[in-house]
Amino acid sequence: MKKVLVVTGTRAEYGLLYWTMKEIEKDDELGLQLIVTGSHLSKKYGYTVEKIKKDGFKIDEEIDMIIDSNRKSSIVKSMGLEMIQMAQAFDRLNPDILLILGDRYETFVAAICAMMMNIPIAHMNGGEVTEGAIDDQIRYAITKIAHIHFVGADVYKERIIKMGEEPWRVYNVGQAGLENIERLKLLEKEEVEEQLGIKFDKKVFLITYHPVTLDVDNTESQVDNLLSAVSNFDARYIFTYPNADFGNQIIIKKINEFAKNNKNANVYYNLGQLRYLSLLKYIDVMIGNSSSGIIEAPFFKLPVINIGNRQDGRLKNKNIIDVGYDKDSIVEGIEKVFYDKTFRKNLNNIENLFGSGSTSFKIVKILKEIKLNKKLLSKKITY
Length: 383
Known about the structure:
globular
């Protein structure tokens, strides 16, 4: 039996890994191992490790590593703490293969440990581009470290091959986010209202804003502009917490202050996968810079105001309105959502750019068939 070790550090990443983990767990030829780290173990972010346990997963190791500080060095120190504990966990668990997703620093540490310990690495969601964040550099570094690549679209597959990766290592399995939508029984509108304690009696804005890690010094003004812009509209504001990148404390402080002074605003640490995806069915617009606006929102034909350059370079559908960081640009984007007839008409012509929603089955099949040998570990550059 192949032991597949999954490492997860954030709620969003776990949501994308969920079905693949379930299918690995069910398969007779694969064994699931699980390390939970990062914001999952932070009360500030909702202590989402409890959600993983409630989902029925056995956690083999919990690595508590976040140093919560305003210093830029805090993340680097956190990575150091994680690396020591991760290496010890790898020694104990002795996995046959590491499966990781995306571009988080927690994931990067796991990849480095596996590389140095000759453990094959399978990486999901490589080949994508987010020009406004340090994520790109982490994602590309993991791509060059990884031995198997599970990507979400043909354009990402081609990009990885152009980076010199051997074509036989790269598989288009579609975006995992679509599988969540296909396989979950989403809540009815009344159920969402009841669980959130909110009446959808006016326009509903879902707002998620993450730090732009290559422009973190301007975070405060960016959030001020966003909050000032949405205040121009009579709506219900649903805020979700940003990720655990440097600069998030400013965002958290600002949105909580806004909610304290606005009876129509609610802030959530973590909506959970089911509530979050169900919410996308019933809201009027998503605002911010989250990748879910790029991947999951098009399925619901949901308009998205994408602020700034954090998601620049990604494959985008017709539901996306790219705007700048200034208030006027954001206001214009929101007005376009509600008053531009051409834009509204184009929402009905959205294409599926990211696969059929069967990502987990494809990944499990490949993991079972892949041979763990010297050829897999010995990477060659093919320019």
